[in-house]
Design a protein that fits this description.
Number of strands: 17
Strand content: over 45%
Strand order of the largest sheet: 7-8-9-10-11-12-13-14-15-17
Shape: elongated
Number of domains: 2
Structural class: alpha+beta
Order of helices and strands: HHHHEEHEEEEHEEEEEEEEEEE
């Protein structure tokens, strides 16, 4: 059983607790009826698969549902999907599955994109894939799958190393100063070898600043590394080191005005849905800057609101 630095955000990373981990839930999400329905749909998939019930798995798909095996091959329709899972179960009676949803996004009021990791377990062997499913809200109130795809990542050293910071995956928000707001979201890049982050800082006193982050594994250094680029023309590179209960990053870069920058950053878990991102030893050009920190809180998926009747 493997524990990770963000374990309290995503629970223990062992896939053996399959049904409990169908979707990681924080308290605010539980009050959302659509979120509860989505969690139930994920749990039904885990149960149907582990019961080897191909018909029950197929029933989780919409009439036009499909499984994309790769770009040139797909399985469409209830009958074909049921036959597909029947072949899987006939070839491996012991296989079990566990899901870890790391991102759930409402694209429209009736369409959701869910991403995460799926673990196929046979005895002591575990095969891990990244998955993405698109679910549509049906007229009867059920969420059914319209498209499913996954990609195996068990042979990726980068994915294995980055899984230690997988708790970053998701949407985050922080208050900055009196009126500033910083939002950040992290996603797996489809290959599973990178994590991509997008940030935005807004304040009534300044123009918005956006940033992108790419987090990867440097096999030469045997360390996690990241690159950050902002809309003002600045960029930096950081090397990550695990230290006790937090990650420490040594960052060097250049800002949009051409001045060199450096800082020591750290990320540590505050509670089950928040981390503290601290910046110390900050230098811009020849000037030492004040230390600062922000508390990032993980946010639940935001469904579209039904307009109130007049």
């Amino acid at each position: 059983m493997k524990y990770v630095i963000f374990g309290s955000l995503l629970a223990i990373s062992s896939p053996l607790i399959a049904e409990e981990k169908a979707v990681a839930v924080v308290p605010d999400k539980a009050a959302n009826p659509e979120w509860v329905k989505l969690k139930t749909a994920a749990s039904r998939y885990v149960k149907a698969f582990n019961d080897k019930d191909a018909a029950a798995v197929a029933a989780l798909f919409a009439d036009n549902g499909e499984i994309l095996l790769h770009e040139d091959l797909k399985i469409a329709g209830h009958d074909a999907i049921e036959q597909h899972y029947t072949r899987i179960f006939d070839s491996n009676h012991e296989a079990k599955v566990a899901l870890e949803a790391t991102s759930v996004r409402f694209v429209t009021p009736r369409l959701v994109v869910e991403e995460g990791s799926v673990h196929y377990i046979t005895g002591d062997e575990i095969s891990t894939h990244l998955y993405m499913v698109i679910l549509a809200l049906q007229d009867d109130g059920q969420w059914l799958i319209v498209q499913s795809r996954n990609r195996e990542v068990t042979d990726s050293v980068a994915y294995d190393k980055l899984s230690d910071v997988e708790g970053l995956i998701g949407d985050w928000v922080a208050s900055v100063g009196d009126n500033g707001k910083f939002t950040m979201d992290f996603r797996w890049e489809p290959s599973g070898t990178w994590m991509i982050g997008r940030g935005r800082y807004v304040s009534p006193d300044t123009d918005p600043v956006t940033m992108t982050v790419r987090i990867g594994w440097n096999p030469a250094l045997a360390k996690i590394v990241s690159w950050t680029f902002d809309s003002e023309g600045g960029f930096s590179k950081a090397v990550w080191t695990e230290s006790s209960d937090k990650w420490v990053m040594k960052a060097l870069g250049v800002n949009g005005e051409g001045e060199s920058t450096s800082s020591t950053q750290s990320i540590e878990v505050v509670d089950t849905e928040a981390v503290l991102w601290s910046f110390t030893s900050r230098v811009i050009g020849d000037d030492m800057e004040d230390d600062r920190s922000i508390k990032l809180v993980k946010t639940p998926p935001k469904p579209f609101l039904t307009p109130k009747s007049k």
